[in-house]
Amino acid sequence: MQEPRHTGTDGAAEKSLQSLEKQVTLLVRRTMESVWAHGYGPNDAVDRYTYPVLMLLDDEGALSLTTLTGKLGVSKPTASRQVSRLSRAGLVDVSPHERDPRSVSVTLTPAGMAAREQVRAARLAPLRDVIAHWPQSDREALAGLLDRFNTDLDLFQH
């Protein structure tokens, strides 16, 4: 875990931290409950917990269950349940890892790729509407700051 770094005066730093905590809380609640609550399509296997598996496999290709577990930031039993659910639905393929017979490799199937695209389109639609009036530079700035925030969260958790 990294040492915390403080910038600014203690009062200003605390105020900005409290504001960030509030805004992250509102962001998570609003996106999960109202914006993306029903955007997972007709396949019951895809939900807010399994969609990140599809997203990672689409972005990175085949991954071992161990690697997938680390990238998702969940326990191995949790990742295994999510992958099993997607596998039963025909959205991912689980096969012995080519270099380590004790491990498995998880890949997207064509149906999984189609589900990923369907869910992405459903999730992008309300997001597009919310920021339609934003200048492109603001969209890019927010995406960049969220990327930095998520990267730092990953570093903090490992």
Explain the overall architecture:
Helices cover 63% and strands 8% of the residues. With 158 residues, it is mainly alpha-helical. The chain has a single domain (30-157), classed as Arc Repressor Mutant, subunit A, CATH 1.10.10.10. Strand 2 and strand 3 form a beta hairpin. Helix 2 packs across helix 5 and helix 3 crosses helix 4. It is globular and about 55 Å long.
CATH topology: Arc Repressor Mutant, subunit A
Q: What count of structural domains?
A: 1
User: Treating each run of at least 4 consecutive H or I residues as one helix, how many helices?
Assistant: 6
What CATH architecture do you see? Orthogonal Bundle
Structural class: mainly alpha
End-to-end separation: 6 Å
Order of helices and strands: HHEHHEEHH
Q: Shape from CA axes?
A: globular
The CATH superfamily is identified as Winged helix-like DNA-binding domain superfamily/Winged helix DNA-binding domain
Overall mean pLDDT? 88
Q: Return Rg in Å.
A: 18 Å
Helix content class: 55-70%
Strand order of the largest sheet: 1-3-2
CATH class: Mainly Alpha
